[in-house]
Amino acid sequence: MAFFTHHIKRSFSSSAVRNVVIKNVTIIGGGQMGAGIAQVAASTGHSVTLVDMTDDILKKAMKGIQSSLRRVVKKTFSGDPESGDDFIQKVMQNVSTSTEPSAAIATSDLILEAIVENMKIKQDLFGFLDKMAPEHTIFASNTSSLPISDIASATSRPDRCAGLHFFNPVPLMKLVEVIATTSTSPETSESLLNFTKALGKTPVCCKFLNPCLFLSAGHASKEDIDTGMKLGAGYPMGPFELSDYVGLDTIKFIMDGGKKEPDNPIFAPSELLNKLVAEGKLGKKTLEGFYKYNK
Ligand SMILES: CCCCCCCCCCCCC[C@H](O)CC(=O)SCCNC(=O)CCNC(=O)[C@H](O)C(C)(C)COP(=O)(O)OP(=O)(O)OC[C@H]1O[C@@H](n2cnc3c(N)ncnc32)[C@H](O)[C@@H]1OP(=O)(O)O
Ligand SMILES: NC(=O)c1ccc[n+]([C@@H]2O[C@H](COP(=O)([O-])OP(=O)(O)OC[C@H]3O[C@@H](n4cnc5c(N)ncnc54)[C@H](O)[C@@H]3O)[C@@H](O)[C@H]2O)c1
Q1: Is 19 part of a structural domain of the chain?
Q2: How many other β-carbons are positioned within 10 Å of the β-carbon of residue 168?
Q3: pLDDT at 9
Q4: Domain check: are 119 and 30 in the same one?
Q5: Which of 15, 23, 169, 200 makes a 20 to 30 Å CA pair with 68?
Q6: Where does the chain bind CoA (predicted)?
């Protein structure tokens, strides 16, 4: 990957860093979550650099941000489309993109990763970025299921590492989990809580991330299960619709992570899930998963 080729060496002391006011944000991973977080951060006046592996991915992310912003301003600026257009333009100016994060990282208050749900890849990324980021920079992960302390162990700054778990779709979902490990400093938690509030979100503090509960099919069709959960339990989406919405590759990473708990039925392997992922049917983003979608 391009950005592994440039190293800015710095030396660090592990002295406590006081409260950081987060203004400059580098988001690594411009998929559905990274793009959504970039949109919300830029909409609330933060300066954002969105990093991914190719320019094509970043172009798609910027297009997605713009179209999501159009949906947002339709409501917030209804009756004043010109002001809506101005708002979109200003927000887009707050976002720059890069396949090479070193320059942005030099002024970054927060590096938030929203890359693939894989421990080794997240650790490699944080270990690499740790060598070039300023001392005050906070590292956060948007992981759905991986232990933050393990990701943080790849850095020399576990006191400045935490989980910042957004929900999908980020522009609409108010909740953000701020996940502190036993090493996360109170100043880091405080900075992240303030950042989350500045985004207009509602933070909750967690000591650790609970694994999500999974349902598996067996005695009913996926349609019946989804309908039952929506009409009977009041959820906006059933588990199969939600899995398609999240991405079946991500769901599989989460399920596979549960292999450490072989007796826990929650993580029982699903042949259907494995088959769909092997066929590249990853849900809404590929237009087919448990269900089929139109473009
Ligand atoms: C075998 C395996 C089984 C395993 C099952 C396990 C499942 C659980 C796995 C969890 C994994 C963890 C994942 C992660 O870590 C945590 C999460 O993020 S969980 C996901 C949480 N999110 C939800 O629960 C979403 C729930 N859904 C909704 O709220 C709605 O369905 C929706 C997504 C908002 C879509 O609403 P709809 O009415 O269906 O569709 P519309 O398109 O009409 O939209 C309504 C309204 O919203 C606006 N809008 C939608 N998306 C966006 C966007 N991206 N940006 C801006 N605006 C958006 C849209 O314009 C509409 O506005 P309106 O027209 O009403 O003004
Ligand atoms: N999808 C959801 O509903 C959801 C909700 C909350 C949290 N999460 C978590 O957020 C993270 C991202 O999920 P997503 O759904 O946005 O995934 P996604 O597949 O949509 O996007 C991931 C992006 O990361 C990029 N990427 C992968 N490795 C990279 C690297 N080393 N450097 C730079 N970019 C890299 C990919 O090119 C891709 O664009 C995961 O950890 C996931 O568990 C997902």
Answers
A1: no
A2: 16
A3: 31
A4: yes
A5: 23
A6: 68, 75, 144
Work out the number of other CB atoms within 10 angstroms of the CB of residue 1: 12
Q: Cβ(283)–Cβ(277) under 8 Å?
A: no
Question: CB–CB of 175/201 below 8 Å?
Answer: yes
CB 209 near ligand 1, within 6 Å = no
Q: Are residues 187 and 269 in the same domain?
A: no
Under DSSP, the state recorded for 232 is: I
45: left (phi over 0), alpha (psi -120 to 50) or beta: left
Q: State which residues of the chain have pLDDT below 50.
A: 1-15, 208-218
- State the CATH number of the domain containing residue 229: 1.10.1040.10
The reported pLDDT for the residue numbered 35 is: 98
160 and 72 belong to one structural domain: yes
Residues 201 and 276 in one domain: no
Q: Which residue has the tokens 């320059």?
A: 103
Tell me how far the alpha carbon of residue 230 lies from the centroid of ligand 2, in angstroms: 27
Token pair belonging to 110: 């927060």
Q: What residue numbers bound the domain in which 119 lies?
A: 24-205
What is the atom index within ligand 2 of the atom nearest the CA of 3? 32
What pLDDT, on a 0 to 100 scale, did the predictor assign at position 25? 98
